[in-house]
Amino acid sequence: MAGRERNRVGRRRRIGAALLTVLAAVLATAAGSAAATTPRGTVPARQEPDTSKITPAMVDAGRAIFHGKGTCFACHGMNLEGTQVAPTLKAHAWRDAKKGEFAAIFSVATHGVAGTLMVAFPNGISRAEALNVAAYVWSVGQGRAKP
Ligand code: HEC
Fold it and tell me: Could you tell me the residue range of the domain that residue 137 belongs to?
């Protein structure tokens, strides 16, 4: 009787330990995937355009978005040189993004240009992705990054 009682307690402890192991694994996976979607340095604390907060990681993430998910390259060219559809995004007489400033480029990416092919958040990019892609475009225009 006493032995059986001890076994039951022992089993309860084992179940408790197993639950803890599962919980730890779930937490580790959640932390891992959060890190995968937002690599360190690609999203500044405040998502506002500030050139002093541009990191190389942001520019690299922006380059990937420009040539991938954001589809910017399709209209603005692989090297930001422009196409028949859309203007260059290198230094030029900016029409919508006034003076080619970081904030102005970010604004065009998030608001679009009404009545043109330039839509807000092209291909459904997020605000953070728009910030990264604007950081990339601005940095290339400033000669601080390669296209
Ligand atoms: C479907 C084509 C298309 C795609 C995709 C596109 N754009 Fe544009 N974009 C345009 C057009 C067209 C204009 C010029 C609008 C006008 O006539 O004033 C423009 C203008 C701009 C401007 C302002 C240029 C200036 O002279 O002021 C910026 C900045 C810009 N796009 C950034 C981006 C970024 C960043 C992406 C990707 C996230 C992107 N665009 C995706 C077509 C596109």
Answer: 51-141
Name which residue sits closest to atom 1 of ligand 1, judged by CA: 117
pLDDT tens, position by position, for the chain (147 residues)? Answer: 555 556 565 566 665 555 555 545 544 444 444 444 455 666 554 578 999 999 999 999 999 999 999 999 999 999 999 999 999 999 999 999 999 999 999 999 999 999 999 999 999 999 999 999 999 999 999 999 999
Q: What is the CATH number of the domain that holds 118?
A: 1.10.760.10
Identify the residues whose C-beta falls under 6 Å from ligand 1.
70-72, 74-76, 85-87, 89, 94-97, 105, 108-109, 113, 116-118, 122, 125, 133, 137
For 34, 54, 82, 104, 129, the CA distances from 39, given in Å and listed in that order, are 8, 14, 30, 25, 12
